[in-house]
Design a protein that fits this description.
Blueprint: E1 3-10, E2 13-20, E3 35-40, E4 43-46, E5 56-61, H1 65-86, E6 91-92, E7 97-98, E8 101-107, H2 114-130, E9 133-139, H3 141-147, H4 152-158, H5 171-174, E10 179-185, E11 192-197, E12 210-220, E13 229-238, H6 241-256, H7 259-265, E14 269-270, E15 281-282, H8 284-303, E16 307-308, E17 314-316, H9 317-323, H10 325-328, E18 337-339, E19 343-347, H11 352-359, E20 371-380, E21 396-406, H12 408-428, E22 433-439, H13 450-465, E23 471-474, E24 484-490, E25 496-505, H14 508-511, E26 516-517, E27 523-524, E28 527-532, H15 537-547, E29 561-565, H16 571-583, E30 588-590, H17 597-606, E31 611-615, H18 617-622, E32 624-629, E33 634-639, H19 640-652
Parallel strand pairs: 1-5, 16-20, 22-23, 29-30, 29-31
Antiparallel strand pairs: 1-2, 3-4, 3-5, 6-8, 7-8, 8-13, 9-10, 10-11, 12-13, 14-15, 17-19, 18-19, 20-21, 21-28, 22-24, 24-25, 25-28, 26-27, 31-32, 32-33
Helix pairs in contact: 1-2, 7-15, 12-13
Length: 657
């Protein structure tokens, strides 16, 4: 038996080892129960993989990103096995791992019920206890079709071998150059218990440490509305029971913060069925909060020398032919309206083409540059019903959209100051934990030359690195006209939201033939920088609502303070206090309802009002008030002018109370 030389790589160490022919990856890590797979030559492999001479092998722990993905995909297989044991007629779709979990699609006669999910979970527990082995085998296309003759969706996937997409999860089954089937084998007898077409890898066995089924939903096969509707079951799986509990606790907290729930409870906004999915209306309290957000942004933009513009909601289609959006973005646009003897009009999906027309409305000199145009511009994008989600994924929303036109020489400094401006403004709203993402050219979806893209990408990278924040690559994630820096912000419970985006565009100025007169009298092409700071007002509204769990800092709160009289005789005194507060620009109300004082306090606590101003006989006699804060603490006998000053100070400094 000959020797095989392999390298075991554990950052930062590398160890060369000589093993005998036939040695598996598992034998390199004896006793290391956390190791569930291996990365060999950059490819993830089962621990049953037989080592070849020269292999570089890296252990994959179950709690690593790759390990969790493998765990979750293995759990999806166990779930599919359980479903077919309970519902033998169920046909298999696709079951990929996803962020924090997995799903599997099934073609069944009727939708799954909550009781069905309980039964499936119980059956999964039985399979897990059996500890069946996952066993990989390579099959020909013909053999796979013969074995899976009763699985029509698998047969379709076989025809995609090597060309499957990650968008619909098909690549987890037929994404490689060969077809493989994973058999679930009885641990003792080796008898076949179940099988599935799959690329792998998988855990060594079905011994899954912690899992839970979460919910079911309807989903079109491979995400296309032209295909049959299947039933999807979502689940989650973790390396330990403690990790699972922490995740479930996190989901409970996220549900408590859900902006849709808070929007209804706090009477901020609604999405009426009569208007349509993804199209929100803001109620008076939500309107106050939104106006406060917008007014502060306007003030900061004015200080930074932006000029405000306004553009219409619809335009002739020729504008988007010029920009290229009808070539590259038509799927995200609403269908055209036939007006003016057959001329196509579109609701605008973005504002940039119209801002280009403003720039081009008259001759421009280099003395005007940088020219910074800013608009709260409402746009419309046709999102599929399955992805519309409250205010965070809407069909109509308002972008705080800016387009900066500058010379090539100004570009680097402008990007540097722009990124600083963006981050400072986000910090003013209470977000402080950031990293940056650099999205580069999609080789299948771009306009312009490679040289132009390289120049724009490099200048963005340099500007990003100056901020001293982590910079993460996003290969292929750019829009068709230029690379992008996006600010990723973590909220109070650690979730990441994409906030501001900054794009360098050397292509649209050429498509629109934008020019300015340079110092030497020549006609030059400006650089165009696209920038959305919030992304959309609606989405940012939702992010802040969830970040603060509805308890907005006083400067953003719809009502900053509410007066609560102990008795009817104290109402006028509080109304005088409220009038003084309003004269200072504060938003103060008085609860003069017939409710008892304790009920008034409970009502205002539910509305998360920052300050409750309580007044009784002693306060009236002394010219004071009592503060009850949102956290339940109370401070008594505060002179009226001091109480007003405390509220004003909290608002002006934009602090949380």
């Amino acid at each position: 038996m000959s020797d095989v030389r392999v390298i075991i790589s554990r950052e930062p160490d590398r160890e060369e080892r000589v093993v005998t022919t036939g040695t598996t990856a598992a034998e390199l890590f004896p006793g290391e129960r956390a190791v569930i797979a291996a990365r060999v030559g950059g490819e993830l492999r089962d621990l049953a993989y037989v080592l070849a001479d020269g292999d570089e092998v890296e252990p994959v722990a179950i709690d690593s990103a790759d390990g969790l993905s493998i765990l979750r995909h293995s759990t999806a297989h166990v779930m599919a096995q359980a479903v077919q044991e309970i519902f033998p007629e169920a046909k298999l779709g696709i079951g990929p791992p996803i962020k924090d979990g997995f799903y599997y699609d099934f073609d069944v006669e009727k939708p799954f019920t909550p009781d069905d999910l309980k039964a499936i979970e119980k059956k999964m527990t039985e399979i897990i206890k059996r500890g069946q082995r996952f066993s990989r085998r390579v099959v020909t296309d013909e053999a796979a079709r013969e074995e899976l003759a009763g699985e029509p969706y698998k047969l379709e996937l076989i025809g995609l071998k090597g060309g499957a997409s990650s968008d619909d999860g098909a690549d987890v089954e037929v994404g490689g150059g060969e077809l493989t089937i994973y058999d679930n084998l009885d641990r003792k007898s080796g008898e076949l218990c179940w099988r599935d077409l799959c690329r792998g890898p998988h855990l060594p066995s079905t011994s899954i440490p912690a899992f839970k089924l979460m919910r079911n939903a309807a989903a079109y096969w491979r995400g296309s509305e032209k295909n049959p509707m299947l039933q999807r079951i979502y689940g989650t799986a973790w390396a330990t029971k403690d990790d699972l509990k922490a995740h479930l606790d996190f989901l409970e907290e996220a549900a408590r913060r859900d902006h849709r729930k808070l929007g209804a409870e706090l009477d901020l906004f609604s999405i009426p069925e009569q208007i349509g999915s993804g199209l929100a209306v803001f109620h008076p309290r939500g309107g106050v909060m939104r106006r406060a957000m917008e007014d502060y942004s306007r003030k900061r933009h004015e200080e930074a020398d932006y000029e405000f513009v306004y553009t219409p909601h619809a335009t002739k289609g020729t504008l988007f032919e010029t920009s290229g959006h009808l070539d590259w973005y038509a799927d995200g646009m609403y269908p055209p309206m036939q007006l003016d003897e057959g001329v196509d009009y579109y609701l605008k999906p973005m504002n940039c083409p119209m801002h280009n027309l403003i720039f081009d409305a008259r001759g421009r000199s280099y003395r005007e540059l940088p020219l910074r145009l800013f608009e709260f511009g409402t746009v419309y994008r046709y999102e599929k019903s399955g992805v519309v989600h409250g205010l965070t994924r809407a069909r109509g929303f308002t972008q705080d959209d800016a387009h900066i036109y500058c010379t090539r020489e100004q570009m680097a400094d402008e990007l540097d100051s722009l990124l600083t401006f963006v981050l400072e403004l986000l910090r003013d709203y209470g977000l402080n934990d950031f990293y940056l993402e650099l999205s580069t050219k999609d080789p299948e979806k771009y306009i312009g030359s490679d040289e132009v893209w390289e120049e724009a990408t490099e200048v963005l990278r340099v500007a990003a690195e100056k901020q001293g924040l982590p910079l993460t690559p996003d290969p292929g994630g750019a829009a068709f006209y230029g690379p992008k820096i996006s600010v990723q912000a973590r909220d109070a419970i650690g979730r990441t939201w994409q906030m501001s985006t900054i794009q360098v565009d050397l292509n649209l100025p050429e498509r629109f033939d934008l020019q300015y007169t340079a110092a030497d009298g020549s006609r030059q092409r400006p650089v165009m920088i696209h920038r959305a700071l919030f992304g959309s007002i609606e989405r940012f509204f939702a992010v802040l609502l969830e970040h603060y769990a509805g308890a907005m800092p006083p400067w953003l709160a719809p009502v900053q303070a509410v007066g609560i009289p102990i008795g009817d005789g104290h109402v006028d005194y509080l109304k005088e206090f409220a009038a003084e507060a309003k004269a200072k620009g504060l938003r103060v109300e008085v609860d003069s309802s017939n409710d008892r004082m304790q009920k008034k306090i409970r009502n205002q606590q539910k509305l998360k009002v920052p300050f409750m101003v309580i007044v009784g006989d002693e306060d009236m006699a002394a010219g004071t008030v009592s503060f009850r804060y949102r956290n339940g603490l109370q401070k008594n006998g505060i002179p009226r002018d001091e109480a007003l000053a405390e509220i004003v100070d909290a608002v002006e400094r934009r602090i949380q109370v």
